[in-house]
Amino acid sequence: MVTERVNQFYLGGEWREFADVTHLPVVDPASERVVGHLAAGGAHHVDIAVGAARKAFPAFSQSPVSERFALLGRMHSLLKERAESFAKALVMEMGAAISFARASQVPFAAEHIRVQMETLEKFQFVTTDGHTATAKEAIGVCALITPWNWPLYQITAKVAPAIAAGCTVVLKPSELSPYSALLFAQLMHDAGVPAGVFNLVNGTGESVGAALASHPEVDMISITGSTRAGVLVAQAAAPTVKRVVQELGGKSPNILLDDADFSEAVSKGVLAGMRNVGQSCSAPTRMLVPTHRLGEVEELASATARAIRIGAPLDPATDMGPIANLPQFQRIQTMIQTGIDDGAKLLCGGLGRPAGIERGFFTQPTIFSEVKSDMRIAREEIFGPVLSIMPYKDEEEAIAIANDTVYGLGAHVQSSDPERARRVALRIRAGQVHINYPAWDGAAAFGGYKRSGNGREYGVYGLEEYLETKSILGY
């Protein structure tokens, strides 16, 4: 199905093909081979998509909650039914290990839809206080820009609350991992989404993203991507005063307090930092440990990293596939070299592909120790399986190091004392803090402080980003 749609955009309820498009290569990161080409749109196609969304908005925004709930239910059922097709698309487009795609990428994407159903069922769109009513109403046409690292997961995290709110949507997925988005557009069609409520335009950020951000008929833009991309979108959106929600970069700390169970905390911390090949904006890539436990931590961390099985993404035994694309692979190699040049202690991994692998964007799981806060590997988002171990002398210094970053997306705290862990968590300047590696919660607010973005996603917090607030006095 994907190959049928690569030359088409989903606009106004139908698949449409255009002669006036450029074509971008789609590369399989495991083999480095071009496996297809993708139609890339521009401002003209954005105009058509936004026009369709604008036309559909009045009716859809006034549709009964029960209808939107039913649509979300059909979306959820189809995603569960088609889970294997989506998992295989993720392997092809971004090199996700098939076991990880099946266990995390696809189920968590489905969970975003289910959580929005649960949220919508309980949400009060009109509340009253005396003679004043407060109405929450759909904001309008929403442009959604999603990244290549969690392609399907980020689509559902934006589309599901937009649909729940009664908004209409134009989606621009990453041109580097487009197949799951094409499958998702077909899913929306098969779920019976009204014409114009959901639209898909593939293309680059410079063409499609910029046109959406500056479009006068777009009421809101939500982007997940790099901080640089978020800044450009906000600048382009400013003249039309649209709402901008940004989920951007991170450099998340993982504080191991001295009373933590290190045998468990270190290994889980390494795996959390390297999950999805380290390609997660909230990955805990700075492990903060007591100076007097540094040797023990180094041994435990190295052993964990060396046990990660790297290989063909379609092999169910593979833990870690390749980096998703060439520019990111090159960036990671540059940053590993920077860590070496700056004098960090290389514990394991390093430059180049793992032993025995000749092709593909495969990177060695790499751990540096004795990393200082002024080193580039401690300050910049690397977005790969590269972990920095940073020693601290006491709890106060640990908190100071944790907060010594321009980012503030995620953080972790490990301790055997729940009260102590809570106290430290409250002092970290980040939008989400995990204590002792809890289960993922699709209803927990997700978003950043500082340069990690504005706004929140997931659950009721995500839904409210797609709503305007209206006061009615004398109600």
What would your notes on this structure say?
- The chain has a seven-stranded mixed β-sheet with strand order 14-15-16-13-12-17-18, with helices on both faces.
- The protein has helices at 2-5, 43-61, 65-81, 83-94, 98-122, 151-165, 179-190, 205-214, 227-237, 262-274, 294-306, 326-341, 376-379, 395-403, 418-427, 459-465, and strands at residues 8-11, 14-17, 22-28, 33-40, 126-129, 132-138, 141-145, 168-172, 198-200, 220-224, 243-247, 253-256, 286-290, 345-348, 366-369, 386-392, 410-414, 432-435, 453-454, 467-473.
- The protein has 475 residues and is α/β, with parallel strands linked by helices.
- It has 16 helices and 20 strands.
- Helices cover 41% and strands 21% of the residues.
Radius of gyration: 22 Å
What structural class should be given to the helix and strand makeup?
A: alpha/beta
Low-confidence stretches: none
Biggest pleated sheet:
7 strands, mixed
Q: Average the pLDDT over all residues and give the rounded result.
A: 97
Number of strands: 20
| Helical stretch tally | 16
Shape: globular
Q: Estimate the strand proportion.
A: 15-25%
Helix content bin: 40-55%
Question: What's this entry about, in short?
Answer:
The chain is of the alpha/beta class and 475 residues long. It has 16 helices and 20 strands. Helix 3 (65-81) packs antiparallel against helix 5 (98-122), helix 4 (83-94) crosses helix 5 and helix 6 (151-165) crosses helix 16.
